[in-house]
């Protein structure tokens, strides 16, 4: 999808090292949520409120922090570095229903999702999400 967006809108790919960890987390949050919304919608045709409540369980900071913890041993050195940069970034906001520690882990996880998406590693992104959801018993 990334390449189609770049092509259709004339957006030139940038050097991934130019992105801040929070910019990676910003796009990663959206990509991860799109994957989760797709899974939730494909599981059953339900009212929008039910879809939203189910999706929130997957995308909240506590769940993303758990995903990071169960996946950290699976990450390559480069992926772990992206997560570390994301975790150590100084966000301007905090999650209203998450601990500071969970919020930082979630930001690292989102940065990884963004980095994988922007580097065209969709298969790896989906593999990590699937593995993480299976391990935390959400899938």
How would you sum up this structure in a few lines?
The chain is mostly helical and 139 residues long. The protein has helices spanning 2-9, 21-43, 48-59, 61-71, 77-88, 100-118, 122-135.
Structural features, described:
The chain is mainly α and 139 residues long. It has one domain (2-6, 27-135): Ribonuclease III domain (Ribonuclease iii, N-terminal Endonuclease Domain, Chain A, Orthogonal Bundle), CATH 1.10.1520. 71% of the residues lie in helices and 0% in strands. It has helices at residues 2-9, 21-43, 48-59, 61-71, 77-88, 100-118, 122-135. Helix 2 crosses helix 5, helix 4 crosses helix 6 (100-118) and helix 5 crosses helix 6 (100-118). The longest helix is centred in the N-terminal third of the chain and has 23 residues, at 21-43. The model has no long low-confidence stretch (mean pLDDT 93).
**What is the level 1 CATH name?**
Mainly Alpha
Rg (C-alpha, Å)? 15 Å
Tally of distinct domains: 1
Low-confidence stretches: none
List the helices and strands in order: HHHHHHH
Compute the separation of the termini in Å.
24 Å
**Portion of residues within helices:** over 70%
Structural class by sheet pairing and helices: mainly alpha
Blueprint of the fold:
Elements: H1 2-9, H2 21-43, H3 48-59, H4 61-71, H5 77-88, H6 100-118, H7 122-135
Helix pairs in contact: 2-3, 2-5, 2-6, 4-6, 4-7, 5-6
């Amino acid at each position: 999808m990334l390449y189609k967006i770049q092509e259709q809108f004339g957006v030139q790919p940038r050097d991934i090292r130019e992105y801040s960890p929070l910019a990676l987390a910003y796009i990663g949050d959206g990509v991860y949520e799109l994957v989760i919304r797709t899974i939730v919608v494909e599981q059953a045709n339900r009212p929008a409120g039910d879809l939203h409540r189910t999706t929130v369980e997957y995308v909240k900071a506590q769940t993303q922090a758990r995903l990071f913890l169960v996946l950290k041993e699976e990450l390559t050195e480069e992926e772990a570095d992206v997560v570390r940069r994301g975790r150590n970034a100084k966000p301007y906001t905090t999650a209203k229903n998450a601990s500071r520690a969970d919020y930082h882990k979630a930001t690292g996880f989102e940065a990884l999702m963004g980095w994988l998406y922007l580097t065209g590693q969709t298969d790896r992104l989906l593999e990590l999400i699937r593995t993480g959801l299976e391990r935390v018993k959400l899938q």
